[in-house]
């Protein structure tokens, strides 16, 4: 598929491993070099700020989506291509989905996981056919991926749905997987007894 804009979900903190910030900034740089535009949550702090700085430092375009209530907390990035203000967190996610052709997830906390799983659920339900990738920095998502595999083994996910999660610890490899992605055409529901 053709990808122009990528939504990146990640933490507004830096985490405890210097590799997180380094990889976030590097992802931004790599996106700009490939001509991918960034859509993200607009913050100038943590990994969110690092990925935006990486994109902008290479002359790329970055679009921030920020709810009004967070604007008052003075975390808005001042150097973006465009800032879009919305009323709520739900509207923020909807707008981020509307503006992108794919999603990449970096390390983060509850918000990052919630955004990742909502986009993944929408894909599972056939509401979009966009590739969703995890840049698995320093093995951050290893345990989550094990848990997802357990969901499949226990009959709550089809293997094809587990395979919707594209994973790499390297941005270039992840871009290749995303460009080659084909959304599954099967339904979500699993019959009783896996019949």
TrEMBL record:
Describe the family membership recorded for this protein in Swiss-Prot or TrEMBL.
Belongs to the LOG family.
Give EC number(s), comma-separated.
3.2.2.n1
Record's protein name? Cytokinin riboside 5'-monophosphate phosphoribohydrolase
Q: Which InterPro entries match?
A: LOG, LOG_fam
Q: According to the lineage, what is the superkingdom? A: Bacteria
What does the UniProt keyword field contain? Cytokinin biosynthesis, Hydrolase
Q: Which Pfam families match?
A: Lysine_decarbox (PF03641)
Catalysed reactions listed for this entry: AMP + H2O = D-ribose 5-phosphate + adenine
């Amino acid at each position: 598929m053709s990808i122009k804009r990528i939504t990146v979900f990640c933490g507004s903190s830096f985490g405890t491993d210097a590799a997180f910030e380094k990889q976030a900034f590097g992802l931004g740089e790599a996106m700009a070099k490939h001509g991918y535009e960034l859509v993200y949550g607009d913050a100038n702090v943590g990994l969110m700020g690092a990925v935006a700085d990486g994109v902008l430092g290479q002359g790329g375009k970055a679009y921030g989506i920020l709810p009004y209530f967070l604007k008052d907390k003075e975390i808005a990035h001042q150097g973006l291509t465009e800032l879009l203000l919305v009323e709520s967190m739900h509207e923020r996610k909807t707008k981020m989905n509307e503006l992108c052709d794919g999603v990449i997830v970096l390390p983060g906390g509850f918000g990052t996981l919630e955004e990742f799983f909502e986009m993944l659920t929408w894909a599972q339900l056939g509401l979009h056919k966009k590739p969703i990738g995890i840049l698995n920095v320093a093995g951050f998502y290893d345990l989550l991926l094990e848990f997802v595999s357990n969901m499949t083994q226990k009959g709550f996910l089809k293997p094809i749905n587990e395979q919707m999660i594209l994973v790499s610890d390297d941005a270039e490899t992840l871009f290749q997987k995303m460009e080659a992605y084909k959304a599954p055409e099967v339904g979500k529901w699993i019959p009783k007894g896996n019949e």
